[in-house]
Amino acid sequence: MGVGACSPQPEGVDDDQIGVLLNYVAGVVLFSLAVKLYSMNVSIHGVVCEAGMSVGYIFGGLCHGSFANRAHNDNCANTYFYPFFVASYDSMIVSSLAWLTFAAPETKAKKWTQNALYLSAALITSGGTMCQFTVDLFPGTKDDCESADGGAVCDRFMMTGEGLFYLAWIATWAVVARSLHVEKLTTFREKFYNFMSAFVLILGPGQIVLVSLLPVIIALLKGRSTEDGMKVSMSLYCDLRTGVTYILAVLASHLFTARVSSVMFKQGESVEKSAVELTRYEKVIDGDDEGEDDEGEDKDGEEVAFGGGEEFDV
Length: 314
Prior knowledge:
Elements: H1 17-39, H2 44-64, E1 76-78, H3 81-100, H4 108-134, E2 136-138, H5 153-183, H6 188-199, H7 205-221, H8 226-239, H9 242-285, E3 305-306, E4 310-311
Parallel strand pairs: 1-2
Antiparallel strand pairs: 3-4
Transmembrane segments: 18-35, 47-68, 80-104, 116-135, 163-180, 192-220, 240-258
Keywords: Membrane, Transmembrane, Transmembrane helix
Region (Disordered): 283-314
């Protein structure tokens, strides 16, 4: 009998098979968004935002499926879990840093969020690397290692970085949403897409933080062990199918995010075209007749015309 939607004894990893499948689906959808934005010549930061998350979820699918064994409550893990999980999180952190560039520069909120992302990357990478060289590695998803309160220290180190990243992830989209709302977006629809890109993350990484952290805090307040709290957390995580609803929320967030990216591109394209038209207009007004004669013709004898086919007669 399984734990909720997970296997009978999940080794510290949510291995809900629907969640595993959704990791790959999310990876494909996000990669498609990255390709679409790239074809539109959107800012490279918007493309990296989607591509980074895509890589993160493809690697995440492997870690929740084929490599689902970490040193969560013992000193054993799958041989490939930590390298791929570190790569997964670091890709998502790169994605978040790319999106954060759209926020107004030199604000305290942006700076603190950026630092939190860097710190989470350092904790995740160093913790995962230490685990790879210190815990006992197994080829499958099960082991017969004895339980240890709190698991391996390196794994707890990495999990601290994961928790910090989830908070910084929400902060990133909130900071950017506020900045774009004030500085860039004008219509109700644009502002709605922008708001929802950040808000739905409460059901994504926000849900993970709540489900993972609250049982441990309650256990410690009651004088019980960290391991007891972590067992309740894993059971609750699987019962609520957090791994499924979390990914659906992230997918929704990135659909809104991609829309915001395309809106900003269209604004930039419109401004650029307007600037070109204005420059041509100013040249005519200033009497810059290089290549133009007194009858409003250019050097090729063609009349100067502006948008909509309307002619501007000097």
